[in-house]
Amino acid sequence: LSTRAGSSLEPEEHSMEPPAVPEEEEPLTVASGPVGHQLFGYVGIEAVLDQMKIKTMKTGFEFNIMVVGQSGLGKSTMVNTLFKSKVSRKASQPGQEERIPKTVQLQSITHVIEEKGVKMKLTVTDTPGFGDQINNENCWDPIIKYINEQYERYLREEILITRKRKIPDTRVHGCVYFVPPTGHWLRPLDLEFMRRLSKIVNVVPVIAKADTLTLEERAEFKQRIQEDLKTHAISVYPQEDFDQDLDDRALNNRIREKIPFAVVGADQEHQVNGKRVLGRKTKWGIIEVENPAHCEFPLLQDLLIRSHLQDLKDITHNVHYESYRVRRLNESNRPALGPNGLP
């Protein structure tokens, strides 16, 4: 009887017994020690970031934003200023066919924006007719219906037995609500809209055309809005309940102190001290849109794009869409009632 080199027949006699673990060796377990264990050599873990970046640059990503407010508050101009391109239609003079609609009509425009090799499929949804009528009762219903329709569309794709590798995402990730610069209090329309919409989408309120207010009026108006939101328990983005850790809470607390942002939009450049800047020209000078000393547009741009864009998408998926998904699946699993009210 012969065996291969290095093999032995002896262990076969004790094959039913569990193998002994040498005292000097420890079995592999998940250690609960401090994060960032010291390695003996280079592993290359940080290369995952490069892989994610390359994949994102190849496939691109989607971002869907909705702007809501009365006509004449500069919604289209603000969107064009945010993304430095003509991504939103703006009528210079309302013609015969461009009058204020009798009901809220939603218009979505999709563009692909590319910067430094990264592609973003941007969808902007405008809401002409919102708040423009004498009777604005239930004018938020078409907006709520549209947002829920996008959740429903995503849910139907997700529950298919054979589903797409990448489900098209048309869900609204952020809703920028334009508050008229009255300088007083929030109107009942503003409060009711934000109360209803903040439960299903990330709402970011801004004070439109803030250059019509003095700095003192702006500060007082902002404080009154913050008091109104707190009194009516309206949770706008970034919501305190969704802060991940202490660092996030510290950053978001600084943002929450500034909300609503007092913004000015402009899509025309002017010469200021030898530089071309975006701004609005007045008799007293030029209001520079991207100058923090003039308005808070840079804070809005940082929030929506540079610091919280992915967080907006995560909360939309993990919180708002998840709530909708659970509700819809519970409805579909509920047994149908007979004529006697029994299953």
TrEMBL record:
Location (main, coarse): cytoplasm
Keyword Cell cycle: yes
UniProt-annotated location(s): Cytoplasm, Cytoskeleton
Protein name: SEP12 protein
Cited Gene3D superfamilies: P-loop containing nucleotide triphosphate hydrolases
Stored CDD domains: CDC_Septin
Family of this protein: Belongs to the TRAFAC class TrmE-Era-EngA-EngB-Septin-like GTPase superfamily. Septin GTPase family.
Keyword line: Cell cycle, Cell division, Cytoplasm, Cytoskeleton, GTP-binding, Nucleotide-binding
Pfam family for this entry, one: Septin
Organism listed in the record: Fregetta grallaria
Source species, domain of life: Eukaryota
GO biological processes: cell division
InterPro entries: G_SEPTIN_dom, P-loop_NTPase, Septin
Positions of the UniProt region annotated as Disordered: 1-27
SUPFAM superfamilies for the chain: P-loop containing nucleoside triphosphate hydrolases
Annotated Septin-type G domain residues: 59-331
GO CC terms in record: cytoskeleton
